[in-house]
Every structure is written in structure tokens, then in C-alpha cells.
Write a structure and sequence with these properties.
The structure is a single chain. With 303 residues, this protein is an alpha+beta fold. It folds into two domains: 113 residues, Aminotransferase class 4, branched-chain amino acid transferase, N-terminal domain (D-amino Acid Aminotransferase, Chain A, domain 1, 2-Layer Sandwich); 154 residues, D-amino Acid Aminotransferase, Chain A, domain 2 (Alpha-Beta Barrel), CATH 3.20.10. Helices cover 25% and strands 29% of the residues. The protein contains seven helices and 17 strands. Strands 8, 9, 10, 11, 12, 13, 14, 15 and 16 form a nine-stranded mixed β-sheet that branches. Strands 1, 2, 3, 4, 5, 6, 7 and 17 form an eight-stranded antiparallel β-sheet that branches. It is globular and about 50 Å long.
Length: 303
């Protein structure tokens, strides 16, 4: 895999397109020391940004939860993203907007620190694009838990909160699993390291309520597809035993879209699931939805 520090292409950096290798930060950047960057993961399909408004609104909200304002509007960020796609000749791409406090302070207090914004995009094929969207993944139960909402800004897509996911993913990979499942502080299901989890119970789609982790925009889109298919959708607390008893289980997120879960191993329980028909239907519905043209409420036309 090519490193991310020196690639061909252009990155939008504080209002201008600059060569990838020149988009660099000082070592004494506040966000690097204090973990206060916020970011988004977005996809473009056929040159159009998918669910862009929702992502950029959450981007702004994430910064507000950390005490600063992104100095660019949703419209400006949208146009910048279009410019990045155009400049790099990308049609299907992964897009990473990032905002952070600058180098005016490295102490805890950073009220006078400048706010910087960058947007990069690159070719990162999804499991579906690789013909692997129905390949089930195996989860291990993480030793780490998601913190309560009164201990961290859990509704923010904040860089500092992702160290938990990194630690949990590394531990799972070391044991031969694809990803890790994290519980909340009360022992209920939370999410994986980077995706929301959903379970099928008959004709009902159930997902844990996002009260201590990031509410997934992709999950919301999957909910809408499920409702169109006549399924009931429910958000509530989900116990580990309920998850194990589900008919089907899958995860959803920008990076992987929808991917089935076929196995979970935990110290006291273990479960296996087939890649069931409702999961397969929703994968198909999702793939159809991202290739539709001209949906003004969820797509932005690229230049």
C-alpha cells in the first residue's frame, strides 16, 4: 500500500489546491498533541458526492462539540470537494475532509489557535467494487468499551476518540479477526471500531441507539432503504445475547458500505450467522441507490 505522505495529486488546503506532498503541518500543531481534529469519510460515485450535505453538516457539528467553528460553509466545502475530484480526475473515490486547531498553542487551552481545513480524495475501492460485498467478516469482542456521553464528546467524529478503535482493531487482527465489536459501559452492544452494527430479527432491522458513539449517516440511509422494502426499523439498547440470537447481522459505514458479519467470538459467548436474504437484498438496494442519477436531496453534481 502506498504511504499517504507523498502521492501524486492535489489536496484542497485552506482554500487552495496544493500538491499532495506540500500539504503538511508543523510538528507543534495543537490537534497532533491534544487530539482535537474532526473529520468525515465520504464517498463519490460516478463523479457525484454521496450524502454530502449530511456529512458536511455533521462535520460542522463535530467541530462545535469540540468548541470551535469550521471557517467554511457547507456550500464552500461542497465546491472544494468537487474541485478535488475534478483536479484528481476521480469518479469513484473516498473523500476525507479534516479540520484542526493550528500551532499557535500546544497547551490545553487553545482559544486563539487558528482553524485549518483540508480535503483529500483518493481511489479506495469498496468491498462491492472488489466483488466482495457478500464476504462475511469475523468479529472479536474488544476489551475496550465506548465511553459514556458525559465523559467524552461521543457524538463528534473526533480524531482523539479513534484511538480506542485502533487499539481494538489491532488486538482483533492479531488474533485473526477482521474487526472488533465494542460494548458500552453497561455491557450493551455499541459498534465496531469504525462502523455501526445492525441485526435482522424476522422482518425487523434493529440497531443500537447511538448514545455513546457516532451516529452513522450510512446507517440512516440503510434504514430508509429497509423501510422502502417494508421492514420495521428500531433503535434501542441491544444486549450481547440478543445480538447472538439474531437471524442476520451486518455492519454499515462509508468505508465498507454494507458488509455481513458471519462470526463473533467473546470470552463467554460465540455466534455464527449466514449471509441471509435480507442482508443480500439491502446490499443490492444500496448498490442501486448509489448509482442513481440526479437525486438532489442526497447528491451533489461534480464539476
Amino acid at each position: 500500500m502506498f504511504p499517504f505522505d507523498d502521492r501524486d495529486g492535489l489536496i484542497w488546503f485552506d482554500g487552495a489546491l496544493v500538491p499532495w506532498a506540500e500539504a503538511r503541518l508543523p510538528v507543534l500543531t495543537h490537534a497532533l498533541h491534544m487530539g482535537g481534529a474532526v473529520f468525515e469519510g465520504i464517498r463519490a460515485y460516478d463523479g457525484q458526492v454521496f450524502l454530502g450535505d449530511a456529512h458536511f453538516q455533521r462535520f460542522a457539528h463535530s467541530a462545535e462539540l469540540l468548541g470551535y467553528t469550521i471557517p467554511r460553509s457547507v456550500v464552500e466545502l461542497t465546491k472544494a470537494t468537487e474541485a478535488v475530484l475534478w483536479a484528481n480526475e476521480l469518479k469513484d473515490a473516498y473523500i476525507r475532509p479534516l479540520a484542526w486547531r493550528g500551532s499557535e498553542s500546544v497547551s490545553v487551552s487553545a482559544r486563539r489557535a487558528s482553524i485549518h481545513v483540508a480535503i483529500a480524495a483518493w481511489d479506495w475501492p469498496t468491498p462491492a467494487a472488489l466483488g466482495k460485498c457478500e464476504n462475511g467478516i469475523k468479529l472479536a469482542l474488544a476489551a475496550w468499551r465506548r465511553p459514556r456521553a458525559d465523559t467524552a464528546p461521543t457524538a463528534s467524529k473526533c480524531s482523539g476518540l479513534y484511538m480506542i478503535g485502533t487499539l481494538a482493531r489491532h488486538a482483533a487482527n492479531d488474533e485473526g479477526y477482521d474487526d472488533a465489536l465494542l460494548l458500552d459501559i453497561d455491557g450493551n452492544i455499541a459498534e465496531t471500531t469504525a462502523t455501526n452494527i445492525m441485526l435482522v430479527e424476522g422482518k425487523r432491522l434493529v440497531s443500537p441507539v447511538a448514545d455513546c458513539f457516532l451516529d452513522s449517516i450510512t446507517k440512516r440511509h440503510v434504514f430508509a432503504l429497509a423501510i422502502k422494502r417494508g421492514l420495521e426499523v428500531v433503535e434501542r439498547k441491544v444486549s450481547l445475547s440478543e445480538l447472538c440470537a439474531a437471524d442476520e447481522v451486518f455492519v454499515a459505514g462509508t468505508s465498507i458500505e454494507i458488509q455481513p458479519v458471519v462470526q463473533l467470538d467473546a470470552p463467554t459467548v460465540a455466534a455464527q450467522w449466514d449471509v441471509g436474504p435480507l442482508t443480500q437484498y439491502l446490499i443490492g438496494d444500496f448498490q442501486a441507490s448509489i448509482r442513481q442519477k440526479g437525486s438532489a436531496d442526497s447528491r451533489i453534481r461534480a464539476v
